[in-house]
């Protein structure tokens, strides 16, 4: 409320917790006493106003390069591995290595940057797909089509990642998700009924990759799929296609060889898949203009049933693919009209008083030169800031231009417990020094 000025021109203004955080939705004269129209670089926790801790860089990344993904997993021997992806390399953290402490474990596969990679730990093995996609207007504003789509894996024991597979007919696919030459005509012929660009049965073998990777019902799932006919080198983009492995067999993707493997083209929607999350017994496919839910059906022939969450062609969808984050039973993402929290039952708006500020900065972000790799907004759900400092929050990091050149990083932080937003502004290096983390957040 406005301060009350006495006859001598004196006043006292109190700002006491619990705090309401950022609020730009109402005139400043109508703000509650515990809200702020321009809160920046503070932490609001347990009804206390705290200063933002100093962010320090512990060590450099290999070649001081940009991180496309980062995750940890445990192998069959119980040993944990922390892995990062860069433009065309994969590294494992090794504190025994002189700084920077990273060992190259790229192996036979190659990362297809500069986009974040999608990854998933399954059966004590780390799987990742090279994020090949075709967007007529993608998150960097230009067309891109990877010529070598693949799924790769690493067990933490072998020398490096593996992205090839010898099929049952002795043909070799250049992806761990592949279709043997003997089955290629049947599988691609079926897909040609849905995608006219395929043109008809292909000679194969077929290599499969995707924009997104998940796991449900003991099956790996690829979404926004690209497929390569190795006989001709032709690559086909199927941005509304979902493809899953056989139950318990992550190297089997051929529905003619194992009926629990298969695919589904979401022909009844007008957009493309922009994200994937699995929450408990159900999975969610984010699209530009909606969300589709899929869940196990109990049938080995058709293991998943699909339903669109909105009874219309358009609805709440994710317009920023890498804003999608998941932790435990809930996810969060940025849609066209608000920021949402997604649970098993519904999507709830959480933008609150910060909604217009977030959308303003998202719009400002879209004006950055599309050739710059650093401009991708990224979301992540963080359970704690450090050991003993529990602070479950959704962080949306938006790179913004500075008048003096370079980028600054604006982070909108939403507290799930207190249901308010904070804003942090962190300077970043010059645009020619790509050091921002753009990790795919769903499985970090």
Task: Describe, in short, the structure shown.
With 444 residues, this protein is mainly beta. The protein has helices spanning 181-192, 355-365; strands at 21-22, 35-36, 42-45, 48-51, 69-74, 80-85, 90-93, 102-104, 118-122, 125-129, 151-154, 165-166, 172-173, 178-179, 206-216, 219-229, 234-244, 262-265, 273-279, 282-287, 290-296, 304-308, 325-327, 330-334, 339-342, 347-349, 378-386, 389-401, 407-415, 421-427. 5% of the residues lie in helices and 37% in strands.
**Total DSSP helices:** 2
Number of strands: 30
Strand content: 35-45%
Structural class by secondary-structure content: mainly beta
Q: Radius of gyration, rounded?
A: 23 Å
Largest sheet: 5 strands, antiparallel
Straight-line distance between termini = 42 Å
Helix content: under 10%
Strand order of the largest sheet: 14-15-16-17-18
Overall pLDDT level: 83
Broad shape: globular
User: Uncertain regions: pLDDT < 50 for 5+ in a row?
Assistant: 133-143, 429-444
Tags for this entry?
30 strands, mainly beta, globular, 444 residues
Outline the structure in words:
The chain is mostly beta strands. The chain is built from 2 helices and 30 strands. It has helices at 181-192, 355-365; strands at residues 21-22, 35-36, 42-45, 48-51, 69-74, 80-85, 90-93, 102-104, 118-122, 125-129, 151-154, 165-166, 172-173, 178-179, 206-216, 219-229, 234-244, 262-265, 273-279, 282-287, 290-296, 304-308, 325-327, 330-334, 339-342, 347-349, 378-386, 389-401, 407-415, 421-427. The longest helix has 12 residues, at 181-192. The chain is globular. The chain starts with 20 loop residues before the first strand and ends in a 17-residue tail after the last strand. The model is unreliable at 133-143 and 429-444 (pLDDT under 50).
